[in-house]
# Entry
Amino acid sequence: MMKPERVDHLSGISDNELIHGTERKNPLSSLSDSELICRIEKINEKERDAMLRGLLHLAEIDRRRLYLSLGYRSLFDFCIRRLKYSESSAGRRIRTARCIVKFPEVFDMLSRAEVNLSTVSLVSEILTTENKESILTEIRNRSARNVKMIVSRHRPELCITDHVRPVYIMKKVPDPKVMGGKKFTADVGGKKSCTSDSDDSGEHSCRDTDMSGDLDNTLSRVTL
# Structure
């Protein structure tokens, strides 16, 4: 049985017209400025309400561990494969859902739009019963960037180890005749070492050279 087409009560525009309106005339263009703002505010309220109810459902699914009986490895796996969330969106929702279970006052702040999924997920791992009042007060109506700074004061960022790789420089090999028979070395990919013979024949030879010793010495001076 087909569902009846829903019509927005504020504008009289159906969902089908909104979705496919770009193929013809934009149906929203007929709305006045005040109607458009009123409509987006109503949509935003419904979206927030749906998000809050979704968090409560996720928390209950997590408590029951229903995802296991459905064949998913974790709640994260369930959110991505079953609910079609992106990885970042799933992570934020799971951290927030678990946070509101431990700290119900966070749910109230979400309902008042004083915090959002991003800011709650950032502080979820540092909130304790001892610091919750001060931290929640501090992050109220703050941007994610500011909340990151607040979190960094309570838990410094993990030290990220630098990855070092050798960089080889191609050097132009000089003419042995110009060098006057002197020995020279050319670093070509760190694989070849070329020296000129000391005689006057003008010929030079190339041999494979183990550059691992030089690389080890270089890496030993790098602080990881």
